[in-house]
Design brief:
alpha/beta, Rossmann fold, N-(1-d-carboxylethyl)-l-norvaline Dehydrogenase, domain 2, 2 domains, eight-stranded mixed β-sheet, 11 helices
Amino acid sequence: MTTTTTTTTTTGGPAGVAGQVTVLGLGDMGSAIARTFAGRGYHTTVWNRTASRSAPLVAAGASAAATAAEAVAASPLVVVCLLDGAAVDEVLGSVGTAVAGRVLVNLTSGSPAQARANARWADERGAGYLDGKLMGDPPHVGTPNIMIPLSGPRGVFDAHEPTLRELGGIAYQGEDAGLAAVEFLAQVAAGYELLIGFLHTLKVIQAEGGDVAGFAERFGGSLGAYPPLLASFAKAVRSGEYGPDLGSLRVQAALMDDLIGHRESLGVEAVRMREVKELMDRRIADGHGDQGFSSLFEVLPTRR
C-alpha cells in the first residue's frame, strides 16, 4: 500500500500505536531486523531478491512486496540491510521515484565514502538518509547487546530514533553521513589489532610450554585496566601533550629489545614488536625520550 507520509512522520509511538517500516534484504541480519519490528507491532513490509526468503517473515506478521520499489513506497521508514555496497547500489537504482519523501536507513557494511555517496543520492531524490552499522550478531538484534552507530541529519535521526531503538543500542555520531562507518571500521580494526597480537602471544606461550588457557584467563582479567589508559592516550593525542605513560620511551625501548629477541629465538613473528621499536627509536632521536607510548602517534606514517 502506497503512503504519502513524509520524512518527518514518526513511525513508532506509544504502546498500541503501530508504525510502518520496510526492510530491504532478508539475509540473517535483515531477517532478524524485520522479525523484531513485526514482533513489536510495526506494520512491516519486506522485500528480498530471492522471494522465498520472505515466507518466514510473512508467517511472523510481515507483508511481502513484489518489488523493491513497492516495498519502499509502503512505508515512510526504509531499512536497508544487504550484502555489500554493490548490492545497495543495484537495489536503490531499481526503486526510482518511490524514495521521494522516505527516509532510508542503510545498515549495510561499507566505507565512509560509500555512505556519503548514498546520502547525496538520497538528497537528490528528495529522501532523507541515515547511515548505520551493525556491531553484533543476528540473535542480538532487539537487545542492548548490539551496537548501532548512526549518522546523518540530526532532524532525521531525532524523528526516527524511537523506532530505531527497537533494534538495539544506537548511538548518534553526527551530521556527516560517513561517521557511522568511521566508527564501525575503527572499532573492528582495533579489535583485529588486539586479537592478532594476542594470537602471536599465544604462540610464544605455547612455544615455551606454557598454559595458553591459563594465560588467556589472566590476560582477560587485566583488560579492566585498559579503559582509563585508552582515555588518557586519546586526551594526549587531542592536546598534543604527552606525559610518560607506561614509563618513558627510553625505558620502554630497552624492554622492546628483550621482547623482540625472545620472540625471534622461538621462531615467532616479531614484526609488530619491531615496528614499535622503530617508532620509539625515531621519537627518542627527535628528542622526546622522556615522553610515553602515546607520543608514538606523532610518528605514525600516513599513506594516501
